[in-house]
Amino acid sequence: MISEPHFPVFEVKMQVEKDYYAILGLSEAATAQEIKKAYRRLARRYHPDADTDEEDVAHFREIQEAYDVLGDPDQREAYDRWREIEGLDQKPALILRATPSYQTLAYLGEEQAFYVLLEIMPTSEIKGKRPPLNLCLVLDRSTSMQGERLQKAKDAASYIIDRLSEDDIFSLVVFSDKAETVLSGRQRPNKALAKSVVSTIGSWGGTEILQGLLAGLSEGEKCRLPNSINHLILLTDGQTYGDEEGCLEQAEIARQRQISITTLGLGADWNDELLDQIAARSGGTSAYIDSPTKIMEVFRDKIHSLRSVLARELVLTLRLGKEAKLREVFRVSPYITRIEEQGGVFPLGMLESHKGDVFLVDMLVSPQSVGQHRLVRVEAVGDIPVLARQKERAWQEIIVNFTEEPIPDQQVPSAIVGALGKLAIFRMQEKALIELGRGETDLATQRLETMATRLINIGEIELARAALLEAGRIAKTGQLSPEGRKKIKYGTRSLSILPREVRHD
Q: What percent of the chain has pLDDT over 90?
């Protein structure tokens, strides 16, 4: 007969807003025996000892609290009843899947590379629903936008206006060295009148992005609703001078106000590093538009994406075990980008209904002994506007068994292999740019040539041709062309079509 494990006892009170079933990794239909089994398993894993960190102690307290309530029939009945009264007994809205590179590793006594592929998807509970959109469009109207560029931008703005729903809010700001609010945010605008106003926009002046951001974020904040998707789209074709720090500060403020920013650079003469940072700090994305004729296509795709957003303010938390050390986190679908940690979490932005987001966690592991080891607990948290839920959670734990002997013929999942192959190309262009910045032109040239070969191997012929062209240019001039730099940088980001195992659209 197995005796109950002895663990520290913490004084707890029932908190109906906490999902005790999720904490124990159970459904609400779990039997008393399943609850006890889950508690034993988790309690042994998180048992506080001299080497336990504060996060594990806090998690153990949650496990103990959950078991104290669910393990007592009377308290469980009261908990279930109160959750039903408070409307907290709904089905989960998010799915988190975790695929490790290995289930079993040989104990080598040294660090080993380890990867986890994460997929975050909406459940059927929220698919088919759409929250209202609070959108501000911020257009560069400087002299360099004169002609086809501004006309195509105005056409795209009119396209958006035509597709507004009754509960959507739309505002339009234009800027040069000053900003002007052309259309103030409101629901159900007169579309014909709004498009007529858009048609009168002319070009003049220089480029001061901060002016546009300030006016646009003011509109976004003024029109923000509790359950709306709040977004700003910034289109520019030029450099801004002297206000870069102010732009980044506003991006941080935007994130705090739950307003994400998409930055779009048109042509070749704009600061890609600045636009990337503005987007990243706000929880948004950046993109390169090489021709005015593609503005409409980019806007159309963006509006389609915004209309399908079901979760916002998503963040990823990684609670590493003592045996694991984090190297990097990447988004690998629908596009490739590095995710930087901010305040102890990794901000992921928004989740769309028609496709899940896929991430790759890159770690080093160094187990202290043979046996099972918890390498990382992964938790995704976000708001679900269509269900008026905040802090919706989904989590997984990665547990690996370390053995004395190597495991023969153990295969890395093909989805991870595919992601690593495309990440290698993405990293090559990053390293080539760094080497070029250091004046190491020979190394940068060789790296671009190697990258071109890899691109050809995966069928990316046009991007490979661009890489070879720029490699030749570096060899001759020591520099990249502005167009080539952006084509390679943003082209490698788009290498995000993963194997079918992780496609959901």
A: 61
